[in-house]
Amino acid sequence: MSAQTQRMRALLAGDGLAVAVGSGDALTARLIERAGFDVIWSSSFCISAAYAVPDASLLSMTQYLEATRAMCDATALPVLADCDTGYGNANNVIYAVEQFERAGAAAVCFEDKRFPKDTSLLAGARQELATVEEFVGKIEAAAAARRDPDLVIVARTEALIAGQGQGEALRRGHAYVEAGADAILVHSKATTPDEIVAFIRAWDRPTPLVIIPTAYPSLTEAQIRALGKVKLVIYANQPLRAAVKAQEELLREIKRAGGIHTIEERMVPVTHVFELQGVPRLKENESRFVR
Ligand code: SPV
Ligand code: MG
Which superfamily does CATH assign the domain made up of 3-237 to? Predict the structure, then answer.
């Protein structure tokens, strides 16, 4: 039992809509917390991007784990760890749950693709689903492996991403609820909200839904709230994409200007970064304890 796992459960059980934002590193997680969001999504896409590799099960579990641990250490918010397919079979899922729980994750998310997975929003990507039986085994394994009964297990279906339709997405969602999932994440790459809205309307279980509207950004929080059933929306990668844009523009300008004399107003001062890093606390400790 931890403050974060209890908070995560309370958010999913509440009347409102909680908002998670995706991060690949501790500094971004801290910015997300300071901006007033509810949950950190430890994103496999953002962590992979930080290594400049595709989000295609290339990194090891330990690399995702250490990035997640750093995010947990840097914030008091619940961290929902994107554990992809569980890095192998149900044995790997058990090890992952043990490790991510120890690292401080409040929730773990597993998706029903086959390992190695390909990223969900890539046009023409290989989207192979695990059998329902195999993935049910993984969710049962995850539920059995948690030590903290409040650790939240999110089961993610990629049935819509794989083009298998609403019937298959619902069938899988139902099976994962039976297997012990605390929430169902249903992902869609449709560029309008129609597909996800149809799923939400058809969802007939009390288990809360989670959505990631990257591909259909027109869907607002007010509209999601009005649909009911969805308790968590994840903005999975917007800070990363904004950072890439800002850095590319800045680097172009340094090249163009032949120096750093024109860019000061595009950046925060170093003192701002010092503060984000916790330098004031370091200095306070130094004056108390370093002799
Ligand atoms: C992530 O942020 O890693 C996700 C969301 O899983 S997506 O990239 O859309 O698959
Ligand atoms: Mg991911």
Answer: Phosphoenolpyruvate-binding domains (3.20.20.60)
